[in-house]
Amino acid sequence: MTLRTTYLAASVAIFSGLLVLGWVTHGTGIVKDDPERNIVIPDELTSELQVKAAYDGEKIWFRYRWPVDRPSIFNDVLVYQDGKWETRGGEALGPNPDFLTEDRVAMMIDDGSVPLFGRYGGYITIGDGLTTFTGVPETEEERTKYLPSTRTDPNDFEALKPESDLEMLRAAGQFIDLWQWRSSRSNPIGLGDDGFVAEERGGDAGTGPYTTNWDSATEQPLYMFDPDVAGSAALSIDAVTGGDVGFNDIYYLSADTALPFDPTLAWKNGDTIPRRYLRPATGSRGDVVEPSVARWRNGFWDVTLVRDMDTGNPLDDKIFRDGGSYDLAFAVFRNASTMRWHYVTLPVSLGLEQPAQMVAERIESGTEPDWTQPWTEIKTFYPGQVTWGRLTDARQHPGADRIAQRVPVAVRHTEEQLALYGVQMEFAEEIRRQWIWTLIASLGLIVGLGINVNLLMRRNEEEV
Amino acid sequence: MTRPDTTQARLHTAEKARKDNDMKRSGWMARGSRIGLTSAGILVAATGAALAHGADGGVAVAVEGAPSWSLSPVYHILVAHFPVGLWMTAYLFILIRSFSDSKFAVRVQNAIWPVAALGTLVGFVTYGLGLTIYPWSAITESPLGRNHIMLATWTLSYWTVMSVLGYRFRRHLFEGAQRWITFTLATIGAIVITITGTLGGSLTGTPSLVTKSLSWIGWNVYMTFYLPTWMLAVYVAGALLLIAIGIIGWKRRV
Q: Region Disordered: start and end of each range (chain B) (predicted)?
């Protein structure tokens, strides 16, 4: 082998080595947590949710089961520290390290009245500039999800239609029924929470299952634990954050477990009281309840919610009818995360004894479900920051024309794919810039190889 | 003094050569016409097929931000099979020639550069058609779109290099140890084509086993392929190093 051929072989080895090195190191250096921009990427991008449904003509039950390594049974708490009560927990960017953000499951329901919900699920409710999105300034009022039809400009949260239009839309069924279950703010007293998504995400008429345990005038809690019931007037923050308080302890405040706050007690640093006081929900908001308090067992939450099929509140709730077909979309909050750090599902069709992805089983009137039917396994995924405005704009989404043609999202994308896209969308500009540089650098490498081999290849006659 | 028989012979030889050239020219022209007609026929058939597949049904809808003009993806999809087929054929021929010195292999060797070059030519057309499908701002927002563009660029530039190499060195590509260099380079080219093709399939919603296999070996194709900044510097340095090695080796002529 001549020296020139040796050079050639070395060049090809260098080129191949750089390709391998590029393969090994690609995709690194950009995607990472950036709390300054409200970006925290979950360790797991997808998970599982199991669901079953049954109805007896009067009531409808939904049973949910999803994996959670460590259950979070507290939400925000008040902690005594040097003479003051400080708030800890509740809302957090990504997972709360102290497990002071409750676990949750939410289910959106539509009966076919909301355009495109059955094809794109919760994506249609994500407008531009919602709370916690990167670059959105913090506002006094939470900017929640909403339906595009409630805005004169679907991408502008502020462009709310007049009240008369909103009432007309509501009467036409253009709202999504929203059931929620919360491990801290509703579960201990056996309740869910009945809400809606229309011009905003809100609660139905009536009162919810919790109120704030805080007297802003005195800057003290309104309630504390009843020592006769709970053993002491407060918990210890170390026990709360360390997971030493469980279902067999009194860990929530309600009429049965609380007393009015007594400031004269000898409070010590670390004393902890829940910042929420639980109470029976009233009105339409109290329609969704639990047959029994849910428990976390063997790594799974197992939750059942039940509601009257016809609540008598057609402007708040989607009415279930025997033989009907509905669209559902779920969200699971796990690992002490809240707000947009949830796992969502693509829309799932529900049939009440009708062919669908999930079939609700008819049971005898007046009986309880025996739950012998198989689970419907549903993939959940972290959605990132993807807005409906972006998805429907052909300048930003190559599939915008498919959406205009009403091609369901599940036809084109899997949950894994959507999770990865969601994460990359949070770094859209940085990734695009790096990709263009990669394109240029790799093209340069190929050109370099081209010049190299053209110079080093030899013809036999050159030898003489 | 001129010898008449020699002059006669020369005239005869010249005449024969002219006739041969004429025959050759007319042969080439006939062959060229046949190729032209066949190509035109294929093009008409392909256009018809593309139009048939591109026909939209249902209700036309306005899309926010849609470009005033774009070409249906079917043209790109249809034409893309030509460079893929031609390049892979070239690779097959290189494979045969790398491992065999048989008459067949040597004969096949003659077709390598024309097939590769034709593939490159159609490759440029395919690349151009691909860029007309979506607005640049949209396709570069899609990780899969970015990856397809990246791999298509690699494929096209790489096989341009291979075509030039094939044209310049022809049979010498397989002389001595150079045949293994040729074989290695062509194998890299075949891998790049395969990945580009499978990404195109994934873009149209039909991911293949290759798509899944790539994730098994470290690249989920739904993640944008980009290099960290330090690696970009390494690539630039690598390109310069390759050029430097080429120049040094060429100057030494050893």
A: 1-25
A410 interface with B at CB cutoff 8 Å: no
CB-CB contact of A294 with A303 (8 Å): yes
B147 in a structural domain = yes
Could you read off the pLDDT of A344-396 as tens digits, one per residue? 999 999 999 999 999 999 999 999 999 999 999 999 999 999 999 999 999 99
* Tokens representing residue A325 in the block: 């077909």
Q: CB distance from A397 to chain B under 8 Å?
A: yes
- Per-residue pLDDT tens over the stretch B25-48: 777 777 777 777 777 787 777 667
- Percent above pLDDT 90 for chain A: 95
What's the order of all strands across the beta sheet hosting A271-274?
Answer: A84-88, A77-81, A271-274, A235-236
Query: CA A337, CA A66: separation in Å to the nearest integer?
Result: 14
Candidate from A61-65, A105-109, B68-72 with smallest mean pLDDT:
B68-72
Q: What is the mean pLDDT of chain A?
A: 96
| Nearest CB to A457 within list B62, B165, B253 | B165
Specify whether the CB–CB gap between A380 and A106 falls below 8 A: no
Nearest Cα residue in chain A from B180: A9
In sequence order, which residues have a C-beta less than 8 Å from that of residue A173 and are 6 or more positions away? A111, A113, A114, A318
- Give the CA angle between residues A206, A208, A213 to the nearest 5°: 125
Quick one: CA dihedral B238, B244, B250, B252, positive or negative?
negative
Q: What is the pLDDT of residue B100?
A: 96
A30, A212, A245 from A78: Cα distances, Å: 37, 11, 16
A1 touches B at CB < 8 Å: yes
CB burial class (10 A; 0-12, 13-18, 19+) of residue B56? exposed
Average pLDDT over residues A242-265: 96
- B97 within a domain of the structure (yes/no): yes
Identity of the residue numbered A448: G
Burial code of A388-423, b = ≥16 C-beta within 10 A, e = fewer?
A: bbbbbbbbbbbbbbbbbeeebbbebbbbebbbbbbb
pLDDT value for B67: 76
Give me the number of domains chain B comprises: 1
Distance (Å) from the alpha carbon of A436 to chain B's nearest alpha carbon: 8
pLDDT above 70 covers a percentage of chain B that reads 89
Asked whether the beta carbons of residue A435 and residue B224 sit closer than 8 angstroms, the reply is yes
Contacting residues of A for B185, CB less than 8 Å apart: 12, 453
Q: What is the pLDDT of residue B1?
A: 45
Whether residue A386 contacts residue A425, with contact meaning beta carbons closer than 8 Å, is answered with: yes
Tell me the pLDDT band of A460, cut-offs 50, 70 and 90.
confident
Element (H, E) at A169: helix A163-171
Check A404 against B63: CB less than 8 A apart: yes
Q: For testing the chain B interface, which of A153, A393, A409, A423 should be mutated: the one with the most B CBs within 10 Å?
A: A393
Is this structure's pTM higher than 0.90? no
Q: Do A401 and B66 touch (CB under 8 A)?
A: yes
Residue B34 inside a domain? The answer is no
- CATH number, domain of B113, equals 1.20.120
Interchain CB distance below 8 Å, B169 and A7: no
Secondary structure of residue A338 in the 3-state scheme: coil
ipTM (interface predicted TM): 0.90
Domain extent, residue B224, equals 43-48+68-246
Residues of B in contact with A45 (CB under 8 A): none
Asked if A445 lies within 8 A of B238 by C-beta distance, the reply is: yes
